[in-house]
Amino acid sequence: MNQPDPQTQIDNYLMNRLSPEQRQQFERQMASDSELADAVALQKLSLDLLEAQNDTVLRDAVRRAQAQGGSGGNANNGGPRNYGPWLIGFLLLALLGTLGYYFSQSQSPVQTTPPDAEQLFAEYFKAYPLNFASREINGGDQALVRANQFYRAQQYAEAIPQFQKSLATDDKPKVRLALALSLLANGQGDLAIDQFQKIIATKDFLYLEPASWYRSLAYLQQGDFRSTRLSLQSIRSNSQFYQQAQALRAALPVPEK
Amino acid sequence: MNRKHPDEWIVAKLRARADRDNDEALRYLYGRMFEQVQRYVLQNSGSRPDADDIFQEGLVILFKLIRQDKFPAGYNVEAYLHSICRNLWLKYLRKYRREVELPDSANDLPVPDAGIAQFLDEDQRAAVDELFSQLGPDCQKVLNYFYYDRRPMKEIFQLMGYASEQVAKNKKSTCMKRLLALVAEHRERYLHLFTKDG
After folding, report:
1. Are A217 and A225 in contact (CB under 8 A)?
2. Which of B6, B28, B60 sits opposite A62 (nearest CB)?
3. Which terminus in chain B has less CB density within 10 A, N or C?
């Protein structure tokens, strides 16, 4: 039987198309032939790059769909070829456009001075929905139980010491995020920034995005436009907070030269 | 949409290398499935951001399985996606929240590992896009069809409009050699992409 060319052999090896015996034989060959081993390593690196590029493209497509909120189909409309939602969306847009036009005609002249930090913060800050289910609470951590109740009731001043107490016994990123958000909502942006920084440093994918967005708002609360701008820049285009971050960046006063 | 066979429609749309088709099927799955998965996560110790992340990751895995023709024939796509998300959530609970009582998973479908290696950040993406752009569009397509989508040569030659399977094989071989040469030229730089912190 003809032996496949080296390129095909490497393909078959890297794409798991060899039988266990063929695989062992190929690995023995690599162990005694450094040139072959190097060629395999180079091809593996090339295929890893190709795979990472493709995986990232898939992830971006999924994020696009998520950003659009699954507008192409739902349980009732029978699939993407149903243009009902699009038609409704179009009519709503037309209605909003018309209303917007009338309002713009009747309102006072366009504001020319940039809004101040306080105004912007009030406009962009929305309480972040966090909840600790009972099974998430370690061994009846009563501080966390109380903190959770206060947080949900938006009684942030009361929630803060409870979250701090809970964190002292068990350092969980979600509890730290809740503490940071409570500090921010309670007007203690300077303390909140430290907590957000700690969460961002952990690179925990579940909490990185809210921590980055709310850190920007914490800087804004402090009136620090420069840090706000820098922090907003770290929010990636695939983040759920990207649109708001872009809008806030555009609303910030132009930096002085 | 093929109303009688939505699974076939979803698979065909996600297998296609066309943004429009992919987006259509993904939006459809979001509309159909997100709330179910969100409910499951919320009922099992998770939060809304948890549900967002789990659904997103689950959808990427499903997408990759379909793209690579590893989606098992005969399964319902939506039930399968739900299983993937449940598996992901269980995995997360086991890893990070050991104190939490695990939900029942007896009815879950077996899900193969899609092997999501690594997502590229913006800098890494720019470097990798630059590398592949040097190959030209046809080479990129052939390599993606063969190595990522795992399509057979008899399909690739038709998709590419080549005269024969042999032409497709030669093209793939030439393109791979060019890619290897380009990667070899800056090997350290590309190796560094996968070891870079953050």
Report:
1. no
2. B60
3. C
